[in-house]
Write a structure and sequence with these properties.
This protein has 600 residues and is an alpha+beta fold. The chain contains 16 helices and 21 strands. Among the domains are: 163 residues, no CATH class; 195 residues, Porin (Beta Barrel). An eight-stranded mixed sheet has the order 1-9-10-8-2-5-3-4, sandwiched between helices. A hairpin with a 3-residue loop joins β14 and β15. α11 runs antiparallel to α12.
């Protein structure tokens, strides 16, 4: 027994102390380079890959989407390097057909409508990337221009629906059999466009529409009247039909996900495989670059990634397909971040990554060429190269795509008012003190727009206080407030929001008095005036708040800390007339809230 304990101790010692040192020693021997992402034609820092370029036809880089700013900088420099050294001119993107088509219309043809639609439906880092490729293409002959290929499902309805409506003939009457569905499609496009730009009136956001059901009904009509659409659309029919076909995939994918089936993630990877192959086979001899979420770029089956199980990514499928131009021809490059990022990361990788992080460039990017025989085989069997990204604060420069939404929420909050002067005025005459700490609730309407601008409207009540005064009166103290806040999301993620805000509002606290049962009417009121049944204390409020929210599908849970400042005269009023002898009572308060909200 003692011997077993000794042996176990040796194993633990080896795992904790010796193995990390051995891995670090092996990592230090790996070829590595500090990547230069400068906007120039110096590609010397990428030359670590030169000898491998001839062996691959598809290059995948796996990122964490939260780090938008640095990801897009890498995307641009990497494509320019591969374009110059390997002739890569096709960029596969993790978006649908419509976005790829419109990007090409802009970067190749300088189409202004395409740019306008992209700006309405993209964050500024994406637009900056497209503009860089547009300018780069201006320096290239037509045969060498960069092209984008959307191989994913249309994950968002806005762009395809809006562009479909732009393809409709402006001067031709809509045939009766398709009129209702085309007008409905145009109505949805108008609503989505206004919602994206933040120009939907508050009353309109209360009434929303299902893009999924609207498009599904449209496609049902389209299938029954296809010949009418062909005549009506004329030369635009083929492009229109391609977008419709892409939206069929969106409907199916959303349906799988709504029913929470594993078919959802399998269907999406299969769609990307099919769409890629369709384009790849029609462009023989051409090479491709793709910068996707990291869960999509492993070249081997993953037991679990991004909560997807026994999972074959698009890169796995292409690298193992029975096609000599693809089988074993996929180069996968995984990018990890020194912030120990949780999103889209495999937790089992974290200890293996530490030696790479220790050797990586501070506040920069370092690429390592992996050795298939190394102790870090868990990484090397999935990826050819590893990038460690140590650029600071780049997550705060991230911008989401199709980010805007509206929510209705229920908020429970703990308030802390200062009722000391009110309690001092009544002295020992009251049965118990008015409590400054109270519980309340409010209903919130929250709108977060495309690039993170946030508005909130709240209407809430404070907990009621019931006390007795001189054993003659029963007094009820209660209040409410209505507030508007304006702020901006610092994180701009689909999953997490951190929103500082400031605003203003109106509040009111009231005292209701009633004569205790069995007591004659007293001759004087509480403040030395004639007895009345109600006193009011209205307030103009200014506030500052910080919200933290976690978004799970259409539901968000969160918390808020805020301070409200009462900027009004703090004396009480009866029937709107100031009672100067009344104690000053401020509605300034600290407030901590928890809430749940649902997307509209």
């Amino acid at each position: 027994m003692y011997g077993k304990i000794i042996n176990m101790s040796k194993i633990v010692f080896f795992l904790i102390f010796i193995l990390p040192l051995a891995i670090t020693a092996q990592v230090s021997d790996l070829p590595r380079s500090e990547l230069d992402l400068g906007d120039d034609d110096d590609f010397s820092s990428f030359e670590i890959m030169d000898s491998d370029l001839k062996d691959f036809n598809v290059f995948f880089v796996g990122e964490n989407h939260l780090y938008r700013y640095i990801n897009d900088s890498l995307n641009y420099k990497f494509v320019k390097y591969l374009h110059k050294k390997a002739g890569v001119k096709n960029i596969a993107i993790e978006f649908g057909f419509t976005r790829g088509y419109l990007i090409n219309k802009y970067i190749i043809e300088s189409d202004t409508l395409a740019l306008r639609l992209l700006k309405q439906n993209s964050g500024p880092t994406f637009i900056n990337l497209y503009e860089k490729f547009h300018d780069y293409n201006l320096t290239l002959p037509d045969s060498s221009k960069i092209r984008f290929v959307g191989i994913d499902v249309e994950r968002f309805f806005e762009l395809p629906v809006e562009y479909m409506c732009k393809l409709l003939p402006a001067d031709t009457a809509i045939p009766h059999d398709i009129k209702m569905h085309l007008e409905s499609l145009k109505g949805l496009a108008s609503f989505l466009e206004k919602k994206q730009s933040g120009n939907v009136p508050l009353r309109a956001l209360i009434k929303t529409y299902s893009s999924q059901e609207t498009v599904k009904s449209f496609i049902e009509n389209y299938d029954l009247t296809d010949s009418i659409y062909q005549i009506y659309l004329g030369d635009n029919y083929a492009l229109f039909d391609k977008i419709v076909e892409s939206l069929r995939g969106t409907i199916a994918w959303n349906d799988y996900n709504t029913r929470e089936t594993t078919q959802g993630y399998v269907y999406r990877e299969q769609c990307m495989e099919d769409n890629f192959l369709e384009y790849f086979l029609s462009h023989p001899g051409e090479k491709f670059y793709a910068q996707f979420g990291r869960c999509h770029v492993s070249v081997v089956n993953q037991e679990e990634a991004c909560s997807w199980h026994d999972y074959n990514s698009i890169a796995t499928r292409l690298d193992n397909i029975d096609n000599p131009a693809l089988k074993g021809k996929v180069c996968s490059i995984a990018m990890f971040y020194t912030s120990n990022d949780k999103a889209e990361s495999d937790e089992s990788h974290q200890n293996l990554l530490n030696p790479f992080r220790q050797l990586s460039q501070k506040n920069g990017l370092t690429i390592f060429k992996l050795d298939k025989a190394g102790l870090y085989q868990e990484l090397s069997e999935k990826y050819e190269y590893l990038i460690i990204n140590d650029v600071k604060n780049n997550a705060l420069k991230s911008f989401g795509v199709n980010y805007g939404y509206a929510q209705l929420g229920l908020n429970i909050h703990a308030n802390h008012f200062n009722y000391d002067k009110l309690n001092s005025f009544f002295g020992s005459g009251i049965s118990e003190k008015f409590l400054g700490a109270s519980i309340g609730f409010s209903v919130d309407f929250i709108s977060v727009q495309n690039h993170g601008a946030s508005q909130r409207a709240s209407f809430g009540f404070h907990q009621q206080n019931d006390v007795r005064y001189n054993d003659t009166l029963e007094i009820d103290l209660f209040g409410y407030d209505f507030q508007f806040n304006f702020g901006g999301d610092l994180i701009k993620s689909h999953h997490v929001d951190l929103i500082p805000s400031a605003g203003y509002g109106f509040g009111r606290v009231s005292l209701l008095t009633s004569v205790k049962d069995g007591v004659n009417d007293p001759s004087a009121g509480m403040f030395g005036d004639t007895l009345v049944s109600k006193y009011g204390n209205p307030a103009l409020l200014f506030n500052a708040a910080m919200d933290f929210k976690i978004n799970i599908r259409k539901v968000s849970v969160g918390g808020r800390a805020e301070y409200c400042l009462d900027a009004s005269n703090r004396h009480w009023r009866k029937y709107g007339i100031l009672v100067e002898s009344s104690p000053k009572t401020s509605l300034s308060n600290y407030r901590v809230s928890v809430y749940i909200a649902a997307k509209l």
